[in-house]
Amino acid sequence: MNATPSTDAGVVGNATAVNSATAASNATARLSSPVTSERLNSFAEKINRLQEQLTEIFPERAQLIKQIVYALVTREHVLVHGVFGTGKSDLVTSVYSCFTTPNIFSIALTKFMSESHVIGVPDPKEMREQGVLHYRREGGVLDGELIELDEIFDANAPLLRVLLGILNERIFKRGAQVEKALLHTAIASTNGDPETVVKNAPELAAVIDRFLFIAKVNYLAESSSRRSMYAKFAADVKPTVRIPFEDLLDISGLVVGPEIVLDNRLLEVYDLVIQAYRKSQEKTRQVISDRRACKLLKLVRASAVLHGRTEVVFEDILAVRWGLCTGNDKAQHDAFTAAAQPIIDQAAKERRQSYDEVCGKLLKQYEREIPLYPNEVSDERLVQLLRQVNTMLQQVRELKPELPSNEDMKAKLLLRLNDLSQKLNDRLLGK
User: Fold this and answer.
1) Which is nearest to 80 in space by CA: 181, 216, 205?
2) For residue 18, what pLDDT band results from cuts at 50, 70 and 90?
3) How many angstroms separate the CA atoms of 108 and 149, rounded?
4) 231 and 220 in one domain?
5) What's the rounded Cα separation, in Å, for the pair 164 and 428?
6) Interval 338-353: pLDDT, tens
7) Do residues 251 and 265 both lie within one domain?
8) Each residue of 191-213: b (16+ CB within 10 Å) or e?
9) 428 Cα distance to chain centroid
10) Is the pTM of the predicted complex or chain greater than 0.90?
């Protein structure tokens, strides 16, 4: 999967030998398909199983793996930093290999690279005959769907600005040339510390902010983890889960689109959580830009999808910590939980109480509307009454009250309706 820069050709290849014709063909073939409940459940099961396998193969990387999964489902990007030799590239390779037929682009960046190393070489014929600089995109970053950018901060400032546009807008612009990138998710790595990088070069803060997920990795701390690492390496253990890339495209489309509704009350609770966490981090001066706060909403939808749901609940807001907190920063994660959990618990309690009030009113209404058992009536009227009772039975069964008083009322109502339904049915059958 790793690409080797070529100083003469100026183009970086990749493991899938992507070219523009192939990319266009694949894009056409990957038309969106309906996301049925069965397809959603199947995807959730597979990607959660993939997460379990990766966590077993790569000990002490559970939080980073969780962030990568959320990045894939939200079409966002991950920045991984830490000392050399911590298996960052091995983990990325293992993740990407579990998706069938994506275009993969991987490159190790250096300060000597130009746009042509990443985008593609300029067309010599157009330069010679028309004096126009037009980059060929074959085999370059624009045709990559899953991308690995190794040592991203080793790239020079002009190249980083190019990458910034591709990461954020999925667009490359150079004069009259405008190219759309196929980028789904990028995972960038660096041995440097982002905070130090920003102190030395403040302009790079904008680059870092393009990564919704930031993780720090260290050498394995536990002896049991190291023994597990040795065993997995010796046996060349790989994840066995395979997920069609088209499923990832369609499910992530559900996450980033408007189909999963976030109601006003959920948005209100979400903002309370963000502001409470922001206040808890005043001393650390952690910045949560408006752009980041908006993007983090995608994690709320992603949490629902990863649980096989298209309905969002307040508890899904807890998933934003994977984009809000640095991976493996226990203090940040603890601070988020301390700030968010009471707000979410209170909101969930209020919603349950509100729902139980509605349930109570509906149960009393059904109780008043139960028809009397008739003495003399036509068969046609008996059929109508039986349908009415059976409809009420179904509606009462679907109610899920939590208050004991409402549960008792529901149980008694079901007994009365079942008894009446049985009597009407027996009378129709002449019993």
Assistant:
1) 216
2) very low
3) 6
4) yes
5) 74
6) 999 999 999 988 887 7
7) no
8) eeebeebbeeeeebeebbbbbbb
9) 55
10) no
